[in-house]
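call fold(seq) -> C-alpha cells
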Amino acid sequence: MNAKNKAILASYGRTFIAAVIAVYATGNHDAKAVLIAAAAATIGPAIRAINPKDPAFGIGADILTLELTKLATPSKRKAVAKKAAK
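ret:
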C-alpha cells in the first residue's frame, strides 16, 4: 500500500470515528443512528476523491502531480541552450 492510499484511508477513518463519537456523545446509543452517521461520514472524503481538481486525492491527482514534477525539474534542453549561448 503506497503513501497516497494510506492517506486516503486515514482521511476516511478520521471522519468515520468523529461522526460515530459525535452521535454517541449526544446520548443517542441507537445502533441504527450510529451506523447512519458512520455511512454519512464517508460522503466528505468520497466527494474529495471524485473532485478532479483536488491535488491530494482527486481523480486527476496523479496527473497533476506528474505535471507539477515536470515543471519543477529543469529540462536538459534549457541547460544545454544556456551553455551554448555563453
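Residues 3-85 form one domain.
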